[in-house]
Write a structure and sequence with these properties.
mainly alpha
Length: 119
């Protein structure tokens, strides 16, 4: 894929994650979860939105090489996240796969955030 295609595919996946993590269905699945899981869900939502904004606003010419270098990890992360988002009942899987993709996006664009994006 071209760097532009990688960027667009990653942005679509991040936007889908934000949309689903703001849905009533997601809220229902979080209901009754331990406080640490709910807090992680909130932090992951914020980190995902921030990563989406940073990637969207990044100039393609400036990140093209990093997109190409991380293509496999971005593609794998997107595939895993898309699969996890198809079953929101598995809250932990959604959070884990979102966090994994966010770490890769963080290698492409600078994202200043807490532990969710570290690495």
């Amino acid at each position: 894929m071209t760097p532009e295609e990688i960027k667009k595919a990653t942005l679509r996946s991040l936007q889908e994650a934000v949309t689903k993590m703001m849905s009533p269905e997601w809220d229902l699945y979080l209901d009754g979860k331990p406080r640490d899981v709910v807090e992680k869900a909130g932090m992951t939502l914020l980190a995902t939105q921030r990563a989406r904004l940073r990637l969207e606003n990044a100039e393609l010419a400036e990140i093209a090489e990093k997109l190409s270098q991380n293509e496999k990890d971005l593609t794998d992360g997107k595939t895993n996240l898309d699969k996890a988002l198809s079953d929101l009942k598995n809250v932990q899987m959604v959070l884990d796969t979102a966090s994994a993709l966010l770490k890769v996006v963080g290698r492409v664009v600078a994202i200043a955030a807490g532990g969710t994006l570290g690495g």
